[in-house]
Design brief:
Layout (H helix, E strand, L loop, with lengths): L24 H11 L4 E5 L2 E4 H19 L6 E5 L5 H11 L3 E4 L6 H11 L3 E5 L3 H7 L7 E5 L23 E2 H4 L18 E6 L9 E5 H14 L10 E4 L6 H13 L3 E4 L6 H11 L3 E4 L1 H8 L14 E4 L6 H11 L4 E5 L6 E4 L13 E2 L4 E5 L12 E6 L11 H7 L6 E9 L5 E6 L4 E3 L2 E3 L1 H9 L4 E11 L3 E10 L7 H9 L10 E4 L13 H7 L1
Parallel strand pairs: 1-11, 3-4, 3-5, 4-8, 5-6, 6-7, 10-11, 10-12, 12-13, 13-14, 24-25
Antiparallel strand pairs: 1-2, 8-9, 14-15, 15-16, 17-18, 18-19, 19-20, 21-22, 23-24
Length: 545
Amino acid sequence: MAQRHWLASYGKVPHDINPDAYSSVVQMLEQAMKQYADKTAFVSFGQRLSFADVDRLSAQFASYLQRELGVKKGDRIAVMMPNLAAFPIVFFGIVRAGAVQVNVNPLYTPRELGHQLNDAGVKTVVIFNGSTATLAEIVKDTPVTTIITAGPGDGLPNSALPAPAIDARLTGTVALGTILSEGKPTDYVAPTLTGDDLLFLQYTGGTTGLSKGACLSHRNLVANTEQYKAFMQETLRPGEDVIVTALPLYHIFALMVNLITYFSLGAENWLVANPRDIDGLIQTFKDSKISVFAGVNTLYAGLAAHPKLKEVDWSHLRLSVGGGSAVIPATSKRWQEVTGKLILEGYGLSETSPVLSLNVPFIKEFSGTTGLPFPSTHIKLINADGNEAALGESGEICAKGPQVMSGYWEKPEVNAAAFTEDGYFRTGDVGVFDERGNLKIVDRIKDMIIVSGFNVYPNEIEAVATSCPGVAECACIGAPDAKTGEAIQLFVVASPGATLTEADVIAHCRTALTGYKVPKVVRIIEALPKSTVGKILRRELRGVA
């Protein structure tokens, strides 16, 4: 097993954690429900739910699943909704009944949804009213027999909030609000759960092929939660933190950090149903007295460029965490200038529950890396020859630890290729360690551009181009070129009101990049294609190119 040379940089952080600190995620959540019963757990549309409310409502849902639907331990239930109060209630009910949650993007197309439901063998779907038209297109070609619909007010004290209509093609649906009505039984039969039992099927984004379900166990999520708590212990204020959740909870980053971890710590969680409403999000910052925020680079960039961000009282903010994609230095600088806090960048994948590494909270300046590997995590870099890379040499990031999945759902051939012979998960990402043990992500293997035999990594080009005055954000791809094999194309979005030309960007890049790394073509466009969690979709830009 690779030597963990980063441990010398840990300070007071413990080198290892106990992945079996709780027998299951359910035990951890139920402990918080009792310990913080009278505290506010969630704020949604201006209404509050206490930990005791969540306890009661999720027990009602668990009871319904068992009594009315006959749900058994290990059954897969899909949840397709934005950040509504219903999300944590449904999630806690599903896991208390011993079932497995299949998280689904509410903006999926019918094709994407159909694949996921069929692949996971889902019979029950809990779906946001506004997404029912998508389900109606393909439900007859799936195993689904029960459809539970959820609106913005379901579970809240005043449930009479405006809600989209349910698609008329779906018949026999059950309203979540009815299931959660007062007087419903809460006497579900708690199954015996162990760390080995499946908790989530977390489907990959499909950016490199057909979406696959990562099998995440209770132990995987208990471990990653315990790793986060150990690593970030000096920032934690149990029972006092206020976290704003703008990232979607169906994404593993927000699911582990914002929901599971901070719920277990008694935090007050403000749920943001529409993070694209930047004015509304900033108002949430003002109202909540936020102490913890997690986001991706594109969200931070949009917020940092907004003039109203300066109107927020940031005196309570102690922690800003970034993940999902590389945090551009210029973005972190703008964020710090307004809020006074660095963005602590981390790294992980759906397959690793998700966090593998994170910057320690005591750094004094933006590191440009994803920080140190978590406790009990082993990472080695494999070079093109299949050998472990020397310090300072780049290689594919391969990880082993209690947060790493057992494999993909019913994909034995894929699993055989996904792990090394000695059990390390092959991430498909290229990284390099510095002497202190900080891991820098160079790029995705498939995103690497080869110009005249030289390797070019898009993240480097994008970081330089983003520092050009007038550039709001950009994305870099390789396009076929008869002379050099591939040529670098850069797609740029200009800052509002900026006067920017292609020549300006190229001239700026020439000041910081060697010749073969300078973009051959720069195209200024109105917006970059992004996934619902803010990742830039380079594959769509390749189609344009």
